[in-house]
Write a structure and sequence with these properties.
This protein is an alpha+beta fold and about 675 residues long. It is built from 21 helices and 15 strands. It folds into three domains: about 200 residues, no CATH class; about 150 residues, Beta-Lactamase, CATH 3.30.450.40; about 230 residues, PPM-type phosphatase domain (Phosphatase 2c, domain 1, 4-Layer Sandwich), CATH 3.60.40.10. About 55% of the residues lie in helices and about 15% in strands. The longest helix has about 45 residues.
C-alpha cells in the first residue's frame, strides 16, 4: 500500500471533492445510486490517499505509536462533537425544514463520519506498519481489498448479488482483523510504560466510536443513511480494532517486559559485550557498523574517526562508491560541534546518494594523550527506504553511536593510563639510576677551599656529573662532565664514563694523558653520535701549579690575586668520545699557571649559562663573571650560593630548566 506522494495527494483531493459532491447530491434524494457510488469511491480514495499524504507530510520519526495514539483520541473527540452538532441540527429541523434541507444536513453528517473513519483507518494502518516488513504491508493491502469488496457487494442491488456472498465476504473482513491486531506491535513497547494512559485513550476511543456510529444515528436521524449502512461492517471492525487494542495491553501486563524491549536490550547487551573485546579504534567502529547493519531499518552504516592527521573508516569495500560519497557528505559537516541530524531523503540534499532516509552524527572525542587533544567521530546511517526511520530507530542509533564515542574515549584513557604507568616506572628507574650515579663523597682538603652546587632538573636524569679526586702526592682533580642528550641515554653514557674514570685515576696519569685515555675508553662504548664535554682542573698544592683542560665545555673563570682581576680561561679542545685521540691530541691544549694564596676558579656547566628568563634571555657568562668580580673575597660556599641565587632570581623559578653544576675552588696556600 505504498503510493507516491503526488498520487496520494491527487487521490486525497479527489476524495474530498467526491465527499462534497456526495453531500450536495443528498439534496436530490432521487439520486441514491449515483451518490452512493461516489461516496463509496471517495471513501476508498480517501483511505489510500490519506495514508500516502500522512506518510509524506509527517516524518516517520514523528509518527511514533504514542503520538498516533493521541491523534486517534483527538480524532474521536472532534468526530463526536461534529456528529452531535449535525445530528441535533437534523433532528431539530426534521419537522419544520424542507426534506431536501434535512437530507443535505444528513449528507454533511455522513461525510463528517466518513472522514473520521478514514482518519482512524489511516492511523490503524500506520500503527500496523510500525517497523514495516513485507508481511505487514501485504496484511494492510489485503485488508483494504477485503474492505472494498465488502463495501461494493453491500452497495449493489439485492437482486444482483447473493446474500451468502455478502456474508462470506464480511467473514473475510473479520478474519483480516486478527493479523492487523497481531502486527500492532507498538503496544508491546508503550503499553507497559504508559499503561493507564493507553487504557484511557483506547477505551475512550472505543466508547466514543460506538456512541457516534451506533447510538446517535439511530436516535437522532429521521431516516437511515445509505452510505453508513453500506460501510456498517467496516465501522464495526474499527470499533472492534479499538477494543482489541484495549485488551492487548492487559495481556501484555502479565508478561512483564515486552518483546520489543527484550530485542533492544539484547542488541545493546551484544553490542556492549563485543565492544568490551575491542582493542583498537578500527575494531570499535567496525563492531558498531556491524551491529547497526543488523537492525531491520538500516541498509548501510558508514563510520569514520578523524584523529590528528589519521582517519579510521569502516570497511565498506562492497560499497566503495557509496562509501566515498558518504565520506564527502561527512566532510561537508566537518568540525568539532556535536550534532545528530535526520535527513528524510538524502538524494534531495546530496545528489548521487540513494533516495532514502539518513542519520548524520558527529561527536567530538576528548583525548588525554597523543598529538591531538580531540578527535571526531562521524557517522552516516542509511535506511532501507525513504523516510525509513522511526523515533525508536533514531534513539537506538543515536545511543549506539554515543556509546561508540564513549568506548573510543575509554580506549584513549586506557592508553593514557598505560603511558602514565610506563612513565612512573621510568621515573623510578631514573631516580634509582641518578642515586647510583651520584658522585662519591668529596675528600677533606687542607690547602683548598671548595664548594659544589649540583642541581638536577626535575626527576629526570640529566647529563651532568662531577667528581673530586685526591692523589697520594696531594694533587687534586676537579672534574666536570656534561654528556649529550638527557634521560636514560645520558644516564647510560655517564655510567660508562664513570666506570672509565675510576679505572684511570688508579694509574696517576698526567692531565693530557688522562683526557686521551678517557677518550679512548669512551669511543669503545659510545655510539658514533654520542659525546661528552669535560672540564679537568688539576691543582698541585706542593708545586703550587694548576693545569686546566677543556674538552668542549664552557670557559673557566679565574681570580688572579696578582692583578686583582677575573680572567677568562679558554684553552682549546673538542668533545670526547666522538673523534680519535690523535685528533683530540692535536687540538687539546692545556692551560698552566702558578698558584698563589687566594687563587680562585669557577667552573660551570651550560645549565647555568643557558638558564633563560620569560623573555628568552640567557643568564650568560658575563653575569657570572660580574658576580665573581664583586664577591671574590667570600668563602667558596658563599660565593657559589651568590651565583646560584642570582641565577634563580633571573629565571624566576626554582628550576634552571636543565641540569646545572657549579664548582668553586680556592687555593689557600
Amino acid at each position: 500500500m505504498k503510493v507516491s506522494f503526488r498520487v496520494a495527494t491527487a487521490l486525497a483531493g479527489l476524495a474530498l471533492i467526491g465527499l462534497l459532491l456526495y453531500a450536495w447530491l443528498c439534496y436530490f434524494p432521487s439520486q441514491v445510486t449515483l451518490r452512493l457510488g461516489i461516496g463509496l469511491l471517495s471513501f476508498l480514495a480517501g483511505w489510500i490517499g490519506g495514508h500516502g499524504v500522512f506518510a509524506g507530510l509527517v516524518s516517520r520519526r514523528w509518527r511514533t505509536p504514542h503520538r498516533l495514539l493521541r491523534w486517534n483520541a483527538l480524532l474521536v473527540i472532534l468526530g463526536l462533537g461534529h456528529t452531535l452538532v449535525w445530528a441535533l441540527l437534523t433532528f431539530i429541523l426534521k419537522e419544520e425544514a424542507e426534506q431536501r434541507i434535512v437530507h443535505l444536513l444528513m449528507g454533511i453528517l455522513e461525510i463528517g463520519i466518513l472522514s473520521q473513519l478514514v482518519g482512524h483507518l489511516v492511523i490503524a494502518a500506520e500503527l500496523t506498519l510500525t517497523a514495516p516488513t513485507p508481511q505487514k504491508r501485504w496484511t494492510v493491502v489485503l485488508f483494504v481489498v477485503f474492505a472494498s469488496l465488502v463495501a461494493i457487494l453491500r452497495a449493489l442491488p439485492a437482486d444482483w448479488v447473493s446474500p451468502a456472498l455478502v456474508l462470506y465476504s464480511g467473514l473475510l473482513l473479520w478474519i483480516g482483523l486478527f493479523p492487523i491486531l497481531y502486527f500492532s506491535q507498538w503496544l508491546q513497547r508503550i503499553a507497559p510504560t504508559y499503561r493507564s494512559e493507553t487504557l484511557f485513550l483506547i477505551g475512550g476511543s472505543a466508547v466514543a466510536l460506538f456512541l457516534e456510529w451506533q447510538i446517535i444515528p439511530s436516535l437522532l436521524l429521521p431516516f437511515p443513511a445509505p452510505l453508513l449502512e453500506v460501510l456498517h461492517p467496516i465501522l464495526l471492525i474499527t470499533i472492534s480494532l479499538h477494543a482489541g487494542w484495549l485488551i492487548l495491553p492487559l495481556l501484555i501486563r502479565f508478561t512483564g517486559i515486552s518483546t520489543g524491549e527484550t530485542d533492544v536490550l539484547w542488541q545493546l547487551t551484544e553490542f556492549l559485550a563485543k565492544q568490551q573485546r575491542s582493542a583498537s579504534i578500527s575494531e570499535v567502529i567496525e563492531t558498531t557498523a556491524e551491529v547497526l547493519q543488523q537492525l531491520p531499518s538500516v541498509r548501510l552504516a558508514f563510520i569514520e574517526v578523524r584523529d590528528f592527521n589519521k582517519t579510521y573508516r569502516t570497511n565498506s569495500t562492497a560499497y566503495s562508491h557509496l562509501g566515498e560519497l558518504l565520506h564527502q557528505v561527512l566532510r561537508l559537516h566537518s568540525g568539532t560541534d556535536s550534532y545528530v541530524q535526520l535527513v528524510e531523503s538524502l538524494q534531495k540534499k546530496y545528489p548521487g546518494l540513494p533516495d532514502v532516509a539518513g542519520i548524520l552524527v558527529q561527536r567530538p572525542i576528548a583525548r588525554l594523550s597523543g598529538a591531538a587533544l580531540q578527535g571526531v567521530l562521524s557517522a552516516a546511517v542509511l535506511a532501507r527506504e525513504r523516510d525509513g526511520f522511526e523515533e525508536a530507530d533514531f534513539r537506538l542509533i543515536s545511543t549506539l553511536l554515543e556509546q561508540t564515542a564513549l568506548f573510543l574515549e575509554n580506549l584513549d584513557r586506557q592508553a593514557y593510563q598505560e603511558q602514565l604507568l610506563t612513565a612512573r616506572k621510568e621515573a623510578d628507574f631514573l631516580r634509582e639510576t641518578r642515586e647510583a650515579l651520584l658522585p662519591p663523597p668529596a675528600p677533606i682538603l687542607r690547602h683548598i677551599d671548595f664548594h659544589v652546587v649540583f642541581e638536577p632538573y626535575d626527576r629526570t636524569i640529566g647529563g651532568d656529573y662531577y667528581q673530586i679526586h685526591e692523589y697520594p702526592d696531594g694533587s687534586v682533580d676537579f672534574l666536570l662532565l656534561d654528556s649529550a642528550g638527557s634521560g636514560i641515554a645520558a644516564a647510560y653514557q655517564m655510567a660508562q664514563a664513570r666506570g672509565a674514570l675510576n679505572t684511570l685515576w688508579l694509574h696517576q696519569l698526567t692531565p693530557e694523558a688522562f683526557m686521551l685515555e678517557l677518550n679512548d675508553a669512551l669511543r669503545r662504548v659510545f655510539h658514533k653520535n654520542n659525546f661528552i664535554a669535560v672540564t679537568l682542573l688539576r691543582i698541585d698544592p706542593n708545586r703550587r701549579e694548576y693545569t686546566l683542560l677543556r674538552a668542549g665545555s664552557p670557559e673557566v673563570l679565574y681570580w688572579n690575586p696578582l692583578i686583582d682581576q677575573v680572567e677568562v680561561l679558554r684553552p682549546s679542545g673538542i668533545v670526547l668520545g666522538n673523534a680519535s685521540s690523535q685528533i683530540i691530541g692535536r687540538i687539546l691544549t692545556p692551560e698552566r699557571g702558578r698558584l698563589m694564596p687566594g687563587s680562585t676558579f669557577v667552573c660551570f656547566s651550560d645549565g647555568f649559562t643557558e638558564a633563560s628568563n620569560a623573555e628568552g634571555e640567557m643568564f650568560g657568562v658575563e653575569r657570572i663573571m660580574a658576580l665573581f668580580q664583586a664577591h671574590h673575597d667570600l668563602p667558596a660556599r658563599q660565593l657559589a650560593q651568590k651565583i646560584q641565587e642570582a641565577a634563580h632570581a633571573f629565571v624566576g623559578s626554582s628550576s634552571l630548566g636543565d641540569d646545572g653544576t657549579l664548582i668553586v675552588a680556592r687555593f689557600l696556600g
